[in-house]
């Protein structure tokens, strides 16, 4: 059965959820894609963008090209991601500055649930899978500990920042926005989107496209040859990222820009009872539960149906 309009609307809404997650430094849109059941289709579709695809365009026409590209799926998802990322980035910035404990609490619950749902897809736990889990957790935890660099507005730097951040954005557990913060490019991109700076936006986008096309081939190869170990590695990434989304933090060092605006550079996770300020513990726990239940809903939607390369539905629970 071919996908209907309602199915593409659902895919676009999953894109909205991915874009919202990617806008928050510490949360990965790749986690949302994984839980909602579209991750491997997304990686496979992106990796199919190659020379052979464009040969199909010139030899067989646009219709065959679009079908081979899985164009309807990519278009619906991309529109959802872009609209959500651009609009939610401002909201995320406001919430992180004014209500950090509350937004981090929601995403903490979301990521805890994600660990369970991604991990349960590992069919067999063996020594390589356990090692991959430990390595993934170690890498992600280390990334959360890296101090942010100073802001850099060089076009070449923005290009490379885009290519690196996009790889993180499609990896469950590793936040593309957080990578941008570490690189010192988050505020530059945020300001460029706010000011509609076309030059900076295009430079970043070009880097992101090249990074995405390159990295998707690696992921597709890993899933094909080392599916179980790859899932364990991704589960580790998500587990290690919990340090970044822990709601209660104390800032150790700050960075002050030329306008006198301070941004945290290095933070340390602390107990809510040791937090210097109002800990909002009751509300924070409530939001963690909401985030946890959100993943249950996404996972339920994602495991009902998926689609194979021919545009036909398959039951993933078989």
Structure description:
The chain is mostly helical. It is 70% helix and 6% strand. The two termini are 17 Å apart.
> Mean pLDDT, as a whole number?
79
Q: Strands across the major sheet, in which order?
A: 1-2
Number of helices: 15
Category from helices, strands and their pairing: mainly alpha
Secondary structure: helix percent: over 70%
Note poorly predicted spans. Answer: 305-318
Approximate shape:
globular
> Count of DSSP E strands?
4
Q: What is the gyration radius calculated from CA atoms?
A: 20 Å
Largest sheet composition? 2 strands, antiparallel
Oligomer: single chain
**Order of helices and strands, N to C?**
HHHHHHHHHHHHHHEEHEE
N-end to C-end Cα span: 17 Å
Strand portion: 5-15%
List keywords for this structure.
318 residues, mainly alpha
In short, what is this structure?
The chain contains 15 helices and four strands. With 318 residues, the protein is mainly alpha-helical. The protein has a two-stranded antiparallel sheet with strand order 1-2. It has a two-stranded antiparallel ribbon with strand order 3-4.
Q: How are the SSEs placed, and which strands pair?
A:
Blueprint: H1 5-23, H2 29-35, H3 39-47, H4 51-60, H5 62-69, H6 71-98, H7 100-119, H8 127-145, H9 155-169, H10 176-183, H11 186-195, H12 198-225, H13 227-240, H14 242-245, E1 249-256, E2 262-269, H15 281-304, E3 306-307, E4 313-314
Antiparallel strand pairs: 1-2, 3-4
């Amino acid at each position: 059965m071919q996908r209907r309009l309602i199915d593409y609307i659902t895919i676009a809404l999953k894109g909205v959820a991915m874009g919202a997650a990617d806008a928050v430094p510490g949360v990965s849109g790749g986690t949302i894609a994984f839980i909602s059941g579209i991750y491997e289709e997304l990686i496979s579709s992106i990796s199919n963008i190659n020379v052979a695809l464009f040969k199909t365009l010139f030899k067989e026409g646009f219709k065959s090209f679009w079908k081979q590209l899985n164009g309807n799926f990519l278009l619906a998802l991309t529109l959802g991601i872009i609209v959500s990322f651009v609009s939610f980035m401002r909201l995320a910035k406001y919430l992180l500055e004014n209500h950090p404990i509350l937004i981090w609490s929601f995403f903490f619950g979301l990521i805890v649930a994600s660990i369970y749902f991604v991990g349960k897809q590992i069919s067999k736990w063996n020594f390589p899978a356990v090692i991959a889990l430990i390595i993934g957790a170690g890498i992600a935890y280390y990334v959360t500990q890296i101090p942010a660099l100073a802001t850099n507005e060089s076009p070449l730097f923005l290009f490379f920042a885009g290519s690196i951040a996009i790889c993180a954005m499609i990896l469950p557990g590793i936040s593309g926005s957080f990578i941008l913060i570490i690189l010192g490019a988050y505020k530059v991109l945020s300001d460029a989107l706010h000011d509609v700076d076309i030059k900076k936006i295009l430079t970043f986008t070009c880097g992101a496209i090249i990074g995405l096309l390159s990295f998707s081939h690696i992921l597709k190869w890993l899933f094909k040859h080392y599916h179980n170990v790859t899932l364990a590695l991704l589960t580790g990434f998500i587990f290690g990222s919990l340090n970044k989304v822990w709601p209660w933090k104390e800032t150790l060092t700050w960075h002050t820009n030329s306008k006198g605006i301070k941004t945290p550079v290095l933070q340390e996770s602390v107990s809510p009872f040791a937090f210097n300020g109002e800990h909002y513990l009751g509300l924070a726990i409530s939001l963690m539960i909401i985030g946890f239940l959100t993943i249950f809903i996404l996972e339920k939607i994602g495991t009902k149906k998926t689609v194979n390369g021919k545009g036909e539905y398959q039951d993933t629970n078989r």
